[in-house]
Amino acid sequence: MASENQVNEQGYRSFKLGDFTFRRDEYFAHISYPGGTHTLSVDLFLRALMRDVAWGFFYGTVNFDSVFGTTNHYGTVDVFIGLRNEAYWKNNKHFVQTFDSNEIMKVFRNILEDWTNEGFDPFAAPEETGSAFGPKHGSNRPALERARVTAKRMVGAKGDTGLRREADGYTVNRQFADYKPEKLEIYPEKGFEDEVHAFDFFDYLTRSDVTWNPSIVSAVRNNLLCATTEEYQLPVIHGNDRVEWFLQLCDQIDWLVYDGQTGKPRARVTAKAGDICAMPADIQHQGISPKRSMLLVWENGDPSLPDLYASGKLKPYPVEF
Ligand code: PHB
Ligand code: FE
Q1: Do residue 134 and residue 184 come from a single domain?
Q2: Domain count, the chain
Q3: CA-CA 20 to 30 A from 318: which of 59, 202, 260, 285?
């Protein structure tokens, strides 16, 4: 086994974070901790790591699989083995260490950069990217450092910068090729020609080049609407520290729902176009989307929510029927 920063036979560096050591070979990521070693397929590991990094550890818990994950405390982050898996913590086989967010971010970024080979894009659907496997060959910084297209005003309005132009490579995804953009009719009052605007949001989303990466499309105080295109499976099992809502815009996602503490299966929620559902604050969930679909996620970014749910002051579900 290579020690920190040494390059192994396959060309990969290993990394230390507290008492964790991360190393990879051609197929697997191996995470060693004082109680043993946990191993997961390196393509899954990199897809999850990409999101944990890009989302700044997200809301609550990001499980890379049923064993390894991170929990965000907004300033510090817990890195754990088995904390959301009853078989581990009931037998005292779990392990948790807390790090300053900046420290873990640095290490995770370095792993991502060193372990991502040329041609592998952790944000892309498996059908649309090269392989994560094999001995180290090249890198893929453009994919890891891709910036979101940001709008200054409503997309397409005068002075806006948020259009996804064909010329910049934002072509319609193969799975949305049958979508026919709407011809929008706009009748502004005289003098408001630059103020009143509309655009076809479905057409906009057909051009998304990433999967499972919600982007904020509207923000009103703490209410964040985040659109995303999905294909294959959400690379993380998310244990949110608050309620969130999903509006299925087209096609279908099945949500696999597990208990937040034990990891035991709780429900399977099938969301078809037009369906809306809430994910409670005490579960873990992973979505699967056999065909590329469009999803709108509604998150409440209020920083006081995690404590209110954790202390039981708020019920874990949003409505009582
Ligand atoms: C979620 O965990 O709620 C989530 C994350 C990424 C997505 C969709 C949903 O693309
Ligand atoms: Fe979630």
Answers
A1: no
A2: 2
A3: 202
CB atoms within 10 A of CB 51: 22
Range of the structural domain that residue 177 is part of? 166-311
Distance from residue 263's CA to the centre of ligand 2 (Å):
15
Do 202 and 88 fall into the same domain? no
The response to whether residue 234 sits with its C-beta less than 6 Å from ligand 1 reads yes
The pLDDT of residue 5 is 65
Confidence (pTM): 0.96
- Mean pLDDT value across the chain: 95
Cβ of 241 less than 6 Å from ligand 1: no
Secondary element (H or E) of residue 54: helix 42-54
* CA 183–ligand 2 middle distance (angstroms): 34
Cα–ligand 1 centroid distance for 246 (angstroms): 9
In a domain, 74, yes or no: yes
List phi, psi (to 5°) of 6.
-75, 150
**Is 238 close to ligand 1, i.e. is its CB under 6 Å away?**
yes
| 161 part of a folded domain | no
* Ligand 1 contact, 228 CB (< 6 A): yes
CATH classification at residue 256:
2.60.120.10
The answer to whether 294 touches 275, Cβ cutoff 8 Å, is no
Residue 50, ligand 1, Cβ within 6 A: no
Domain annotation covers residue 194 = yes
* 5 is a domain residue: no
For the cut 50, the answer to whether the pLDDT of residue 1 exceeds it is no
Residues in the chain: 321
Could you read off the pLDDT of 74-123 as tens digits, one per residue? 999 999 999 999 999 999 999 999 999 999 999 999 999 999 999 999 99
Residue 4 pLDDT class (50, 70, 90 cuts): low
Q: Are residues 38 and 31 in contact, defined by beta-carbon separation less than 8 angstroms?
A: yes
